[in-house]
Amino acid sequence: MNENEQIIFHIDVNSAYLSWTAISLLKKGEPTDLRTIPSIIGGSIEDRHGIVLAKSTSAKKHGIVTGEPIIQAMQKCPNLIAYPPDFALYSKCSRAMFDILSEYSDRIEPFSIDEGFLDYTGMEALFGPPIEAAKAIQKRILAELGFTVNIGISTNKLLAKMASDFEKPDRVHTLFPEEMSAKFWPLPVESLYGCGKTTAKRLRSLGITTIGALAKADRQMLLSNFKSQGDYLWESANGISSSAVTAESPANKGYGNSVTLPYDVTDTENAHHILLSLCELSLIHISEPTR
């Protein structure tokens, strides 16, 4: 790491919706922590409708995935516990986290309700080396707010975000340019941020199966096959990103939300439940006050 390079943190809450609901219930006297049992956020088990928005580690071990119908999740785990999302609570928890982050830099960019970027460049004199500061942030969030976060550290937003997705939960990971060959390039091409399933399938058809292979691919060939997206893929695989951490987000002209489903939706009722869940989640962002 060059001492003149910028230092970017990506902070990501571990199982945000589930963690925030679990903490709220514990404060109200609930004896069991949802994070320690097969549990999900989303829909209602009693009514057997809705989709999984978040899952505990125990639920994941039963094969439950985000986006699947509640009734399908129940078939995998009959003793599954489900709670509906609490949008007001999630907004409150998010604001509290970003308030803590703002004490470490005036350059904070929320990326979603449960993740954001922090520009740590030049802050070492106040809070110490990047890894030390990241661990201090983790400890504060856990002690003051009760939940854990992953923090990725690098020289740009892309690599910092990729680093935070390494082993979870409650971890600090670095992904500096000199570490890419060992930590980044061996990963499957699907794990590259911005590379969707369709793009990954096309890359694999071209013999490109890892991020490293994509980084070494002929750039002109990528442009021929993927048009302008080819440039993005090649640059991302090589850890190139010029996007700056911006404290002020531009005014929204519209709102959107999406989920990747592990199955095809073929009936109207299921489609309506999924669309309703997406609309409800969008309300979090619409109602979220400007920081």
Concise structural overview:
43% of the residues lie in helices and 11% in strands.
| Fraction of helical residues | 40-55%
Order of strands, widest sheet: 5-6-1-7-8
| Class from secondary-structure proportions | alpha/beta
Radius of gyration: 20 Å
How many strands, what sense, and barrel or not for the largest sheet?
5 strands, mixed
Tell me the distance between the termini: 31 Å
Q: N-to-C SSE series? A: EHEEHHEHEEHHEHEHHHHHH
Poorly predicted runs are: 283-291
What gross morphology would you assign? globular
Number of E strands: 8
Secondary structure tally, helices: 13
Average predicted confidence as pLDDT: 88
* Strand content bin: 5-15%
Secondary structure topology:
Blueprint: E1 8-13, H1 16-27, E2 39-41, E3 54-55, H2 57-61, H3 70-76, E4 81-83, H4 87-101, E5 108-112, E6 115-119, H5 124-127, H6 130-145, E7 149-154, H7 157-164, E8 172-174, H8 180-183, H9 197-205, H10 211-216, H11 219-226, H12 228-237, H13 268-287
Parallel strand pairs: 2-4, 7-8
Antiparallel strand pairs: 1-6, 1-7, 2-3, 5-6
Helix pairs in contact: 4-6, 4-13, 11-12
